[in-house]
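Example for tutorial group B:
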C-alpha cells in the first residue's frame, strides 16, 4: 500500500491494483497532521488537521497493522520534508477521536509584538511673516539623532535652502520669492511631520470710489485701483447681482467697472460685496422707496394738528421718528405698506422756550451706506402768518411764506418717515 503526495497537495492512495486520488490540500512549508483510518471490507478515510478530506470503499479487506503473522506495509512518500511523530492505534478512530488528537497535538503559534515609542519632533517657531519683496527665514527642528526626516514645500515660491532630508536636529532655512500680486499669500513647509507656515504680504495697493446706493433699477460705477509698479490684482464679486464687467484683473494702476442688476424684490434691501485688489467693498441696493402726501401742509399759529399719507409697497415696514418734544404723533409710529400718520403741534406758549435760536436736529436711520428717506419739517411761528409743513426725499427743507424761514426766531422740528431697521441695518444720530 502506498500514499504518494503530488505537487498539488493531493494524495494518490494505491494498493498496486487500483488507485484513489484524495484532494487533501496539503500545503508546502507548513506542519500538518495526516491521518488514515479504516476497517477490512469497510470505508477507508483520510483526515488532514483533524478534518476529513476524503474516503473510499476500495482496497477490499485491506487492514492496517498485522494480518496473521505477516506485517502489512504502507509506504508514505512523495515529498521532501520531515516527519515529527508517528502513531498507531488498535482500532479505527472515529472522526471525533481524530479531531481530539489533533487539538491536543497541534502546533500553537504565539505572536510576540514588540512596540517602540514614537520620537516626537519639536519645531520652533511654527510660523513666519515676510514682506512683499521676499527674503529668508528659518526654524529650528529638535529630534533624536538616529531619526531621519524629509522636508517638502507646498508652493514653488517658497524654497527649502537647507536640504530636503537628513537625520536628527537641524535648522530649516527657506527662501521666499518676491510676491508679484497685491494679495497676501501663504505656503507651508512640512518637515518631520511638523508644519512651518510662511505668510507673505502683497504689494501695496489702494482703491478709490464714490459710495453708491443702487436703486431697484440697478446701475453701474467705477472703482479705481492704485497699485505700485506691475503689482498684479484681481476683482471678484461676492454675489450674483453685482458683476465685474471690466477689470477682472490687471497690473499696476487700473479701473474696475461694476454693474448692479435690477432688483424686483420690493419688500427689503439687499447687500453685496466686491473684492478689488484684496480689499472688500460693500454695496446696498434699495428694494423700495417711501413717499408721503401731501408734501406741504399749513397749520395755525396756535396749537394744531394734521395728517399725511404714507405710500409704500404692501410688505414694506416703516417708522416715524419725531425730533422735537412739541410735535406728537397720535397713535402708532410704525406701519406696513400704505398708511396714515396723524400728529399734533403744541401751542406757542408751550414751546416758546425752545423758539430762541433753535437749530434743527435730525435722526437718521440708514441701511449700510444708505441715504435719508422721507422727512417732514414743521416750522411754527407765533405770528399770524402761520406755519408750514414741508416734506422732501432727502431731509432738506424749504419755507413758503412770510417770516417763517427766519430760523433764528421760530421753532422748527422734523417728523421723519423711514424704513424700519431690519437685519444688517443700523442707525446713526448725527446733529443736523
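The residue assignment follows.
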Amino acid at each position: 500500500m502506498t500514499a504518494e503526495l503530488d505537487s498539488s497537495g493531493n494524495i494518490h492512495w494505491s494498493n498496486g491494483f487500483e488507485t484513489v486520488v484524495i484532494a487533501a490540500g496539503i500545503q508546502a512549508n507548513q506542519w500538518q497532521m495526516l491521518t488514515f483510518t479504516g476497517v477490512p471490507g469497510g470505508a477507508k478515510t483520510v483526515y488532514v488537521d483533524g478534518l476529513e478530506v476524503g474516503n473510499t470503499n476500495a482496497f477490499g479487506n485491506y487492514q492496517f497493522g498485522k494480518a496473521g503473522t505477516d506485517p502489512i506495509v504502507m509506504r508514505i512518500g512523495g515529498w521532501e520534508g520531515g516527519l515529527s511523530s508517528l502513531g498507531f492505534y488498535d482500532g479505527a478512530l472515529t472522526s471525533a477521536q481524530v479531531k481530539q488528537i489533533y487539538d491536543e497535538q497541534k502546533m500553537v503559534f504565539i505572536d510576540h509584538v514588540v512596540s517602540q515609542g514614537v520620537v516626537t519632533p519639536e519645531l520652533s517657531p511654527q510660523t513666519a511673516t515676510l514682506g512683499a519683496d521676499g527674503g529668508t527665514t528659518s526654524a529650528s527642528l529638535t529630534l533624536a539623532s538616529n531619526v531621519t526626516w524629509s522636508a517638502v514645500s507646498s508652493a514653488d515660491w517658497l524654497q527649502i535652502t537647507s536640504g530636503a532630508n537628513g537625520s536628527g536636529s537641524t535648522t530649516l532655512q527657506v527662501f521666499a520669492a518676491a510676491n508679484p500680486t497685491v494679495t497676501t499669500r501663504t505656503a507651508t513647509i512640512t518637515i518631520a511631520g511638523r508644519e512651518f507656515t510662511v505668510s507673505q504680504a502683497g504689494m501695496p495697493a489702494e482703491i478709490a470710489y464714490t459710495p453708491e446706493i443702487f436703486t431697484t433699477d440697478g446701475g453701474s460705477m467705477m472703482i479705481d485701483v492704485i497699485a505700485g509698479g506691475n503689482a498684479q490684482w484681481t476683482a471678484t464679486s461676492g454675489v450674483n447681482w453685482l458683476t465685474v464687467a471690466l477689470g477682472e484683473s490687471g497690473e499696476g494702476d487700473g479701473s474696475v467697472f461694476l454693474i448692479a442688476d435690477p432688483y424686483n424684490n420690493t419688500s427689503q434691501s439687499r447687500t453685496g460685496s466686491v473684492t478689488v485688489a484684496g480689499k472688500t467693498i460693500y454695496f446696498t441696493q434699495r428694494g423700495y422707496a417711501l413717499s408721503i402726501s401731501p408734501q406741504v401742509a399749513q397749520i395755525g399759529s396756535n396749537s394744531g394738528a394734521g395728517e399725511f399719507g404714507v405710500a409704500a409697497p404692501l410688505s414694506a415696514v416703516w417708522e416715524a421718528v419725531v425730533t422735537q418734544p412739541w410735535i406728537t404723533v397720535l397713535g402708532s409710529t410704525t406701519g406696513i405698506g400704505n398708511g396714515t400718520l396723524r400728529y399734533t403741534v403744541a401751542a406757542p406758549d408751550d414751546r416758546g422756550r425752545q423758539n430762541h435760536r433753535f437749530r434743527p436736529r435730525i435722526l437718521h436711520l440708514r441701511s449700510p451706506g444708505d441715504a435719508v428717506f422721507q422727512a417732514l419739517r414743521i416750522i411754527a411761528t407765533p405770528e399770524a402768518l402761520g406755519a408750514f409743513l414741508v416734506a422732501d426725499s432727502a431731509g432738506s427743507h424749504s419755507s413758503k411764506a412770510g417770516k417763517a424761514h427766519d430760523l433764528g426766531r421760530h421753532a422748527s422740528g422734523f417728523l421723519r418717515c423711514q424704513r424700519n431697521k431690519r437685519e444688517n441695518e443700523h442707525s446713526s444720530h448725527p446733529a443736523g
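Residues 9 and 26 are 4 Å apart (CA to CA). Compare this with the pattern of hydrophobic and polar residues in the output above.
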